[in-house]
Amino acid sequence: MNLINPSSSTITSFKPNSRFSINALPKLLLTQNNKIPHCQSIPAFTSINGCSPFGLSSSCLSFRHFHLPRAASSEPNPEPEKAGAVPKLPLKKVQLPLVFGLWYFQNIVFNIYNKKVLNLFPFPWLLASFQLFVGSIWMLVLWSLKLQPCPKISKPFIIALLGPALFHTIGHISACVSFSKVAVSFTHVIKSSEPVFSVLFSSFLGDSYPLSVWLSILPIVLGCSLAAITEVSFNFQGLWGALISNVGFVLRNIYSKRSLQSFKEVNGLNLYGWISIISLLYLFPVAIVVEGSQWLEGYRRAIEAVGKPSTLYIWVLVSGLFYHLYNQSSYQALDEISPLTFSVGNTMKRVVVIISTVLVFRNPVRPLNALGSAIAIFGTFLYSQANLASKKKGDEKN
User: Fold this and answer.
1) What secondary structure letter does DSSP report for 286?
2) According to DSSP H, which parts of the chain are helical?
3) 217-244 pLDDT, tens per residue?
4) Across residues 61-85, what is the average pLDDT?
5) Measuring CA to CA, which residue among 103, 105, 279, 111 is closest to residue 187?
6) Please, which residues have CB within 8 angstroms of residue 290's CB and are 6 or more apart in sequence?
7) Is the pLDDT of residue 95 over 90?
8) Residue 346 has pLDDT above 90, yes or no
9) Residue 299 phi/psi, 5° resolution?
10) How far is it, in rounded angstroms, from Cα 242 to Cα 39?
11) Which residues contact 363 (CB under 8 A, 6 or more apart)?
């Protein structure tokens, strides 16, 4: 099970049994004398990935070599196969760019329409609740139509989800508050500091990191500081919202790793679906208390500003749908590729989102602000590489 914050390069892995072997073939491969006279390597299906970019069951299969009897050939001296050769999978080559493309596209669309709505209707608590509501309905539809396998629900599983869902709620609403106060690009730069909080909290709880990891977070701190002091749209609520969002998502990852070890059979997409449902139950009652009395007046002003009510409705719906889809696609991407490739792709995704939102909203960017943003994002990339190298060395020792 991979629980990640799709907006960061921090990856917390606790793999579920979402890929499984199908080993029923050997009995069919025996000859009448229960012997295999001569064998050749050909691929056999051995694992199934259950997540597609839209939550549907995927036919993307992993392969390993299995021995089958070779039929007698009438052709003289057939060309020998190369040892360990794996068949080329054109579909796989096409699917990987598609997954990345969907992930980037969905993230960009979410950030643009999320900010458009908040500019007209500056009530992040209600908007964040609606986004969780859309994701919850999406998953319930997939489960009810059996387009996505529904996990078995038990009381211990729900109890184990309460902590991660609470921290996910804190992370989501804090980010939405930040988006409502400052430029989208600034929020994303500050959110790139999530690895700093991950290292600090994990170290406090007993994990150890090599010097390379500690050094990699220095440019993140430097870049975020430079970006903050030169940000044109700087606002303390926006800054603190982004920082608290980092804390929430880091604690979600850490808490999930510790509390969900007994539920590895639940894949990442289903886990995210249930976290969305529980987070909605946490968030919406608080949203009513915090800003519920202002919603009607805010709605009236938003309609006056936009002209057509349907325009506001479409923007809100798009922000909710694409919020869930880009998170869903991030699970698909991590399921299909290595953590190293994912971390590189995630870093580039942040760059693409920042550039796209700056172009769309025409936010003024000072040279020092751009430099600080670049340093922070590059630091995030260095952290992901150092962290993965450290984990690889640890696995080799074990």
Assistant:
1) H
2) 26-29, 90-120, 124-144, 155-181, 184-191, 194-204, 211-229, 236-259, 268-291, 295-306, 309-336, 339-361, 367-397
3) 999 999 999 998 988 888 999 999 999 9
4) 41
5) 111
6) 125
7) no
8) no
9) -65, -40
10) 59
11) 183, 184, 185, 232, 233, 357
Give 362-392 as a DSSP string. T----HHHHHHHHHHHHHHHHHHHHHHHHHH
Nearest partner of 63 among 45, 84, 76, judged by Cα: 45
Tens digit of pLDDT for each residue in 176-211? 999 999 999 999 999 989 889 989 998 888 888 899
Would you call 236 exposed, middle or buried from its count of C-beta atoms within 10 A (0-12, 13-18, 19+)?
exposed
Q: Tell me, what amino acid is at 228?
A: A
Give Cβ neighbours of residue 229 (< 8 Å, ≥ 6 apart).
none
Residue type, 229: I
How does 56-71 read in b/e, with b if 16+ C-beta sit within 10 Å?
A: eebebbeeeebebeee
Phi-psi region of 44 (alpha: psi -120 to 50; beta: other; left: phi over 0): beta
Beta-bridge mates of residue 68: 40
For residue 43, which phi and psi values (nearest 5 degrees)?
-75, 145
**Of residues 218, 216, 204, the one with CA closest to residue 254:** 204
Which residue has 């049994």 as its token pair?
17
